[in-house]
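Project outcomes to date are best conveyed with an example. Our students and postdoctoral researchers have been running inverse folding experiments weekly, and each run begins with a structure described purely in tokens. The record below, which covers 364 residues, was selected by the lab manager from last quarter's runs and is presented without edits.
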């Protein structure tokens, strides 16, 4: 990548790489995704520097972003605690509040969460935006006679609010572990934090209460529904009906996936005919990506559960942060240090009619 590229060439190359990035994300190719993300970061740096120079900003104040190693979240965590152990004198245990420097790594790791990656949902991190734009599909009209006006298409480009809800995770670490094994902790710290946040994202995307949590799919207006009236899944017909419903809204079969819980998994994997032979799914249903997640609730009104089917790329998860708050003296008598990790999550559904909830399924 030449340092002498024009701004037009840089923007063009970034758009091309971003397209490949989306393909790598959908394919679950973490290696290719990481390589492409590094190239985008380099271009973003160059574009930012070009903009700053055009505005005559002093170069000593330039912000430089860098792509960091995949265990950087854990390293930031350990570094924050170690530094705060020598800084904190307040009896309340409140120390400095350093920000994670690995937002890119954090975003990249969230995109690898099986629930997000396999379903096709999108994760973004727009730190300075409060709106997420989207557009309805335009109608296309043909000209009857040469010189006739084209009928207005009625296309609407609008936006949804990015309404962050704050999450927090308090992690306690043994001072002995910090003293004698801190370098070995980085991977473990990242793993447990990402797993905890990933589990939370999975749950609130589906059933967030719209109060202190984001509004989940269960209560988003406009999402389609099929009611099984308290019966169990006896065959594959509800899946075919759900696919037909969203297909009529313009969703291509290749863009569909579905999400079910542990009980749905048990029911569909045990489908049998009258002679106890397992029932194979119809080809179209069998070809759908599926995510079995214990985030799907199974206690809706008298032990009922549900599953979700449609174009899950309509679901956008916006994240902010993460950030650190050192609490190194809060558990001092236990010889433990702690860090409160926090950030924001917002769930946006661009086209609710592209998703159907099959509900009131009796738990087996």
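After processing, the design step wrote out the following sequence:
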């Amino acid at each position: 990548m030449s340092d002498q590229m024009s701004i037009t060439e840089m923007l063009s190359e970034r758009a091309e790489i971003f397209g490949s990035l989306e393909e790598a994300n959908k394919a679950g190719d973490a290696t290719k995704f990481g390589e492409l993300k590094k190239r985008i970061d380099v271009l973003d740096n160059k574009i930012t520097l070009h903009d700053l120079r055009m505005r005559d900003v002093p170069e000593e104040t330039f912000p430089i972003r860098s792509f960091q190693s995949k265990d950087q979240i854990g390293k930031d965590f350990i570094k924050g605690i170690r530094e705060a152990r020598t800084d904190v004198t307040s009896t309340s245990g409140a120390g400095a509040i350093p920000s994670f420097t690995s937002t890119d790594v954090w975003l990249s790791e969230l995109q690898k969460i099986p629930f997000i990656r396999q379903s096709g949902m999108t994760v973004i991190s727009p730190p300075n935006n409060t709106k997420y734009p989207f557009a309805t599909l335009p109608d296309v009209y043909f000209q009857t006679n040469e010189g006739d006006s084209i009928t207005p298409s009625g296309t609407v480009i609008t936006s949804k609010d990015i309404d962050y809800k704050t999450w927090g995770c308090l992690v306690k670490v043994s001072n002995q572990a910090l003293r004698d094994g801190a370098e070995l902790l980085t991977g473990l710290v990242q793993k447990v934090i990402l797993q905890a946040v990933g589990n939370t994202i999975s749950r609130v995307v589906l059933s967030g209460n719209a109060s202190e949590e984001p509004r989940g799919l269960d209560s988003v207006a406009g999402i389609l529904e099929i009611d099984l009236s308290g019966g169990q899944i006896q065959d594959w017909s509800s899946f075919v009906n759900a696919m037909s419903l969203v297909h009529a809204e313009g969703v291509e079969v290749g863009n569909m996936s579905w999400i079910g819980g542990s009980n749905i998994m048990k029911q569909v994997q045990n489908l049998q005919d009258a002679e106890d032979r397992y029932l194979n799914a119809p080809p179209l249903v069998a070809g759908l990506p599926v995510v079995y997640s214990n985030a799907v609730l199974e206690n809706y009104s008298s032990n009922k559960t549900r599953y979700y089917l449609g174009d899950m790329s309509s679901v956008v998860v916006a994240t902010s942060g993460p950030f650190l708050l050192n609490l190194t003296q809060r558990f001092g008598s236990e010889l433990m240090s702690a860090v409160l990790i926090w950030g924001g999550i917002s769930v946006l559904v661009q086209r609710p009619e592209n998703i159907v909830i099959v509900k009131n399924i009796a738990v087996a």
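Residues 175-207 form the longest helix (33 residues). The chain has nine helices and eleven strands. The training component of this project remains on track.
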